[in-house]
Amino acid sequence: MPYLELQGLERDFGTVKALDGIDISLGEGEFLSLLGPSGCGKTTALRLVAGFDRPDAGTIVVDGKDVTRVAPNKRDMGMVFQAYSLFPNMTARQNVEFGLRVRGQDKPDRRKRVDDLLELVGLAHAGDRYPHQLSGGMQQRVALARALAIEPRVLLLDEPLSALDAKVRVQLREEIRRIQLELGITTLYVTHDQEEALSVSDHVAVMYRGRIEQMGAPAEMYSAPATPFVAEFIGTMNRLEGTVVDPGAGTVDTGGRTITVEAARGKPRGARVLVLVRPETVQVAAANGAGGNTLTGEVLTHTFLGPVTRLRILSGEASLIADMPTARAAALPPGSKVDASLPSDEARLLDLTEEALPEIGEEPGPADR
Amino acid sequence: MLIGAFKGANGGWTTSNVSQLVHQPYIQAYRESIEISGVTALLGGAIGLALAYAAIRDGTPRWIRSLLTTFSGVAANFGGIPLAFAFIATIGTIGIATQFMHNQLHLNVWQGADLFTKTGVEIVYLYFQIPLMVLVIAPAIDGLRREWREAASNLGANAWQFWRHIGLPVLMPSVLGALILLFGNAFAAYATAYSLTNGNVYIVPVVIGAYYTGNVFNNPHLGQALALGMFVVLVAMMLLYIPLQRRAARWAK
Amino acid sequence: MRTRRRIAPSAAVWLLLGAAYFLLPLLATFLFSLRQLQTGHCCTVASYTWVIHNSEFWQTLKLSVELALETIAVSLVIFVPTVYWVHLKVPKLRAVLAFMALIPFVVPPIVLVVGLLNFYKGSPTWFYGQPWGFLVAAYVILAFPYMFFSLDSGFRAIDVHTLTEASQSLGASWPRTLLTVILPNIRAAALAGSFLTLAIVLGEFTIANLSLFHTFPIYLQYVNETQAYAAGATTLVSFGITWAAMLSLLFIGRKRGQRAAFIGGAR
Fold first, then answer.
1. Binding-face residues of B in 153-192 toward A, CB within 8 A
2. Distance from CA of C2 to the nearest CA of A (A)
3. pLDDT tens, A36-94?
4. Is C37 on the interface with B (CB under 8 A)?
């Protein structure tokens, strides 16, 4: 029995369709991330669940009850905003206490609960500070404690880490997950950062243009993207356009070179396909003309990423990215002629439809806020 | 001026001008002045705040806000003689609205004569006090973040609880500053009251004016003492304002 | 993206009440001005004809406009070089000037005029007894805050240092730099200050009344007392002048993308 259900949610902003039919169902205590570029509708979806906005169609059900038309202050949802949401005229403690205060809870109970929560988020010492005396990370901890104080039925987080430093971001996201597991609270998390989404969630839903492209476990999203968009958005992916040559042998022609892809077996001959290869599965060696399933090319650049080094390789028209251990990459400096061999069994294949492939970037979308 | 306040009619030094201030009828003039300024500052402040919020809040079209700010810019500068007359023509004894109520609606709640009393002066002052409040407080209302409202509502607070615990406390430092400005604005006003009541409302600037233009009695030194007194009242207001402001803004940077 | 919500009912009520309160007196004044001079019946433009043919109306208006122009000229000559110099050489003095500019706000005009009358009492009659002497001196003080804050924001918006250095490195003298380089760049700010000054001087009653000069507002008051229906017409004319000054201000501000709204004037 799902705990939180969104059914056929739609929302129009004038000419823009911010949400074009969203269906989600989430079990109690589960953590779902809504992931997508700006303007994909993820924040709109969250605001509908919180009740700050009403859907044009569809329903929102929590614990078997339809809350679509319930006012936000009657929904019992705890929300953590992007930033600056703490009441500036109240101390950290008063902020956390606020929800309990408007619920008319007794003072001693309140005090106890606030102490526990500040303890939980590691701010027992900073309770009497005003928001402007707290760092960005501390502010978001207080905001989390404030949202949890009312024992919400669902915890909503709207890009809570996007205004923080990289280091604090990683630390805090782990802490959010720890607390979420500890309290077993059903959580909806909005982010545009795929690493963030993959690292903390039970489920990830990738959204694009107001629709859910794919929903599944993080590992599944990474290893088995269902659409070209997901493939591009999650992790780094080499995309090679091609045509199926021999369905029996599983060979695909990509710009004059023929490679073998297991997944191409059984596809109609002449079908347009997209071959997807993760950079870490590409094996690179100095060119010797030997070995099957290879593309020959020249190393253009090295990008040092710590344990691995990313090589950009130009092979004919196609540009290829390959990750290899840093220690071995030194032997193949830019300008080297190399063979890049593609794993025939790990490469994935998507049908290339007429629809143009989406460009992904930080284009500011109208419906995202 | 300071020197003049302590000089007698014959040029010698005296404290009699200043000491007269605390006696009738001058103490009454100060009382009236302070009351009119206080009432119009508080009323104008409250109404101006509500108007500015109504124009700025989510859901109100942008053009209404531009219109209100532009109009406030004009109305806040529209004082003195023309303003007084506009009200005489509207709710004076032979004013359009007064006659309309009387002849068409047969209502006799407002005869028009009250316009020339303290109440009338207060009604007319509001005409520039409210727009002044709108102009001064609008930037502060812009500073109220949408997140605060949403977070409050998310935590279970209704609109009243939001204003009681967050909206008003956050605006309070700006509101206090604006109220001081409104008070000083009304306290200094002379032309409007003079023109409206022909000098019959007994407020300090009108009394000073009478001593200077001297139709009945001419006593510049008493006038100077009265002006000094006004200055003292304003300084006292500032001294009252500073600790209040500090208290209201203790959470701010 | 904002949720496209409709205007809140309470907001609509407030705005409608506000509009009624502010527009009613103007409408009433207009209807009033259309009444016949003798009988008080509707509708005639007699009041306006009377005003147009009234020589005192034109004389006092001319005097007030002249005073305003003189005040503007004197203020600009004094304050433009001062503010320029402060921004360029002694930015620390800016705070001092800003504080001084607040004084005419805090001190009621009636107190100001009392002090000034006293201060200038011994000065020669050509100054003390003439509107373009004493009155303009007082109005320059009244206009100081408006001029200062307008000019200050104007100078803040441009890079005074770079402009000055560029001009001088090309061989321009100080006066030439000020006139041909700086002035065109702060024109909007100077205009804004000038329109505010115009509105203030055209409406100023307190000082003129106490120092016994016969300016336009004094004339308005005289008409109010003696010619009820004609006063409707003069009131609207005066209101029109304030509108024109404020709208010009807004227009400059919009074109320049900077806010020049300021408040004050004749109470």
1. 153-158, 161, 165-166, 169-170
2. 8
3. 988 888 999 999 999 988 899 999 999 989 999 899 999 999 999 988 899 999 999 99
4. no
Residue C171 domain-assigned (yes or no) = yes
Sign of the dihedral through C-alpha A315, A320, A323, A326:
positive
Distance CA A315, CA C102 (A): 72
Round to whole Å and give the CA distance between B59 and A261. Answer: 56
CATH number of the domain within which C120 lies: 1.10.3720.10
What's the Rg (C-alpha) of chain C?
A: 22
B60/C15 Cβ within 8 A: yes
Q: Which residues of A8-26 are buried (b: 16+ CB within 10 A; e: fewer)?
A: ebbbbbeebbbbeebebeb
Contact between C55 and C214 under an 8 Å Cβ cutoff? The reply is: no
pLDDT in tens, C114-164: 778 777 777 776 676 677 788 888 889 888 888 888 888 888 878 888 888
Give the separation between CA A302 and CA A309, rounded to whole angstroms.
7
Against chain C, the chains showing at least 3 CB pairs within 8 Å are A, B
Q: In chain B, what residues touch A88 (CB-CB under 8 Å)?
A: 170, 251-252
Instruction: Give all chains having 3 or more CB-to-CB distances under 8 Å with chain B.
Output: A, C
Residue C14 lies in a domain: no
Residue type, A279: P
C101 in a domain, yes or no? yes
Q: Does C3 touch chain A (CB under 8 A)?
A: yes
- Chain B residues with CB under 8 Å of C242 CB are 74, 77-78, 82
Instruction: Give yes or no for a contact between C213 and C83, defined as CB atoms under 8 angstroms apart.
Output: no
Answer yes or no: do C267 and B79 touch at CB < 8 A: yes
User: Which subunits sit against A, judged by 3+ Cβ pairs under 8 A?
Assistant: B, C
Place of tokens 């205004």: A163
How far apart are alpha carbons A162 and B204 in whole angstroms? 59
For B198-245, the pLDDT digits (tens) are 777 788 888 888 877 765 556 777 777 888 888 888 888 888 888 888
Nearest residue to A367 via CA among A113, A46, A16 = A16
Note whether C205 contacts B198, CB cutoff 8 Å: no
CB contact under 8 A, B70 and C246: yes
Q: Which residues pair with A339 in a beta bridge?
A: A285, A296
For residue C225, is it within any domain? yes
- Give the burial string for C66-99 (b: 16+ CB within 10 Å, else e): ebbebbbebbbeebbeebbebbbeeeeebeebee
A130 in contact with B, Cβ within 8 Å:
yes
The number of domains in chain C is: 1
Radius of gyration of chain B (CA): 22
Q: Is the predicted pLDDT of residue C204 greater than 90, yes or no?
A: no
- Find the angle CA(C105)-CA(C106)-CA(C108) to the nearest 5 degrees: 85
Say whether pLDDT at B164 is over 60.
yes
Domains of chain A: 4-232 (3.40.50.300), 237-351 (2.40.50.100)
The 10s digit of each residue's pLDDT in A206-225 is 999 889 999 999 998 888 88
Q: pLDDT tens digits for A157-185?
A: 999 998 888 889 999 999 999 999 999 99
Which pLDDT value is given to residue A134? 92
Residues of chain C contacting residue A367, judged by C-beta atoms under 8 Å apart: 1
Domain hosting residue C228, numbered range = 50-256
State whether B170 and A74 contact (CB < 8 Å): no
Q: What span, in angstroms and rounded, lies between the C-alpha atoms of C118 and C242?
A: 31
What structural domains and CATH numbers belong to chain B? 23-248 (1.10.3720.10)
Provide the shortest C-alpha distance from residue B39 to chain C (in Å).
17
B247 secondary structure, DSSP code: H
Task: List all residues of chain C from 105 to 134 with a beta carbon under 8 Å from chain B.
Answer: 105-111, 113-115, 117-119
Mark yes or no for CB contact C1/A367 under 8 Å: yes
